[in-house]
Amino acid sequence: MTKKMRMTKQKRVILEVLKNTTSHPTADWVYEQAKKQIPDISLGTVYRNLNVLRDMGEIMELNYGSSQSRFDGNPKEHYHFTCESCSRVYDIDLPVQREMNELVEKKNGHRVDYHRLEFYGECKDCRKGTYSKDLEDNRV
Amino acid sequence: MTKKMRMTKQKRVILEVLKNTTSHPTADWVYEQAKKQIPDISLGTVYRNLNVLRDMGEIMELNYGSSQSRFDGNPKEHYHFTCESCSRVYDIDLPVQREMNELVEKKNGHRVDYHRLEFYGECKDCRKGTYSKDLEDNRV
DNA sequence: GTAATTGCAAATAATTTGCTGGGTG
DNA sequence: CACCCAGCAAATTATTTGCAATTAC
Q: Which of A10, B37, B110, B131 is the most exposed place for a label (fewest CB within 10 A)?
């Protein structure tokens, strides 16, 4: 039984703020905007509702699931796959498609220096049920 | 004058740890590994050196520049451009290439649910010197 | 009525920084 | 021997959480 969600004034305003901007605001900016309509709304409420709305699929969180930075000893451009089950990150050997940068430059007018491509899903170890914490801890 | 960098025992070990793994460790994991060789190394030193090594281009930081999450009112899959100068995030209208997911599935054996593609560079406003803080604050 | 949700404040978690002594070039 | 960098601990920043009061359904 997933528990039922109530549409509160706070939730409505937060969603409205997000739906009415083409920018990609931070929680804090949403909070500032929401305060214009509900002066005593609290930042905690904004965070809670952003998470609820994300889980419902109403909005997207960029950088979702990456509270910690990860480092890569290989500084050459390459792509990654992140397992949403065990959080491990794998290298992907697709060739880097630099043509896409020029395409975006032409279409949107920004100067594009590089891009980042990340795949998400369930890794082969987790699919097989082979995953073990030991394996993770001993990766070298 | 960029100041000169000294090769310390700590820096050498941290770099060595990263170069000798194909995983994409967190700062904390690097710290744990480095401690095996330098028991009294401090976590602060690990963070400092990871940043120095990243700035030198010796290693890559994944999720670089995103200490805060950003939210998108449009939950449909689409790509983004992030300006490294003003930090604004723009939508990119390239069609989503789902074929790449299958390619990775076939080649690497992971189940791929979706991917994320982000471009980086300098946005057209910053290139023109048009950027203003007001503009950012008033984005709606 | 009752369970979900709020505001507030305190708690976490990741990362950065100030200081002072030590080690590299 | 100058000055970059280490260790330590305290500070910052983003986000989450416990609790008692409030509100949607």
A: B37
